[in-house]
Write a structure and sequence with these properties.
Keywords: Membrane, Transmembrane, Transmembrane helix. The chain is α+β, with helices and mostly antiparallel strands. It has one domain (about 10-205). About 20% of the residues lie in helices and about 30% in strands. The protein contains three helices and twelve strands, in the order E-E-E-E-E-H-E-E-E-H-E-E-E-E-H. It has helices at about 50-55, 105-120, 180-205; strands at about 10, 20, 30, 40-45, 50, 60-70, 80-90, 95-105, 125-130, 135-140, 145-150, 165-170. The N and C termini lie far apart (about 45 Å).
Length: about 220
């Protein structure tokens, strides 16, 4: 059997019989094949819990997580850590049940983004999500969740960064048919907030952005 191709710069968190699983605190732990773990305890910098992954994948299905080697603590441009969670259903095909993409953005992007989402693409305006006073958030009708947070910090030469914003996008193209769409959106919204909190914690934002204690309710 041919070896499965791997993305450059991507760390396998869980794959096949012998797996590496994201553990508490962002570390990794090794699961022996005979333990029969089909769903990791967490994935993507702990943005997705075991229950989240089990709900998305459905009973009896395996969940595979691929986390980019770039850490949330990295500040070098381009700063775009990513994580993908795939689900192998009843067929031989694998589907992306969840994907987290993070990117650093500048002031110009933030202004354009705010204006664009306020007017939207009629008639499907995104729904604003309240992630707290330190962030902006949206839920789009196809299910994408986006969060934009400002995290000020100083460059190595002491200058304020020209890229103070972090954009977080949570997507996915398929999940268990037993899981209602509203529950999928709830999981993505919670994952976006956890990722934002991880960025604030690891980046040491000098502006101390305030985030909500609990994720907002999925409106649909």
């Amino acid at each position: 059997m041919a070896e499965r191709p791997r993305r450059r710069g991507v760390l396998p968190i869980a794959l096949g019989a012998a797996v590496l699983v994201a553990g508490v605190g962002g570390g990794l732990w090794y699961v022996k094949p005979w333990q029969g773990v089909d769903v990791p305890q967490s994935a993507c910098w702990n943005a997705f819990t075991h229950d989240d992954l089990a709900t998305l994948s459905g009973k009896g299905h395996k969940t595979l997580a691929w986390q980019d080697e770039k850490a949330l603590t990295d500040r070098e441009y381009p700063h775009d850590p990513a994580c993908n969670v795939t689900w192998k259903g009843d067929s031989s095909l694998s589907h992306a049940v969840a994907n987290i993409a993070t990117r650093i953005r500048d002031e110009k992007f933030q202004r354009a983004k705010t204006k664009a989402e306020a007017t939207g693409w009629e008639p499907n305006l995104p729904v604003s999500l309240d992630f707290g006073p330190g962030a902006q958030g949206w839920l789009f009708h196809e299910g994408t969740v986006q969060l934009l947070i400002r995290c000020d910090y100083l460059e190595k030469d002491g200058r304020p960064s020209n890229w103070p914003y972090h954009e977080i996008a949570i997507t996915g193209d398929r999940w268990s048919s037993d899981t209602p769409v509203t529950e999928v959106h709830r999981i993505r919204i919670a994952a976006a907030l956890r990722t934002a909190k991880a960025i604030v914690r690891t980046q040491g934002c000098t502006n101390a952005p305030q985030l909500a204690e609990q994720p907002p309710t999925a409106p649909f």
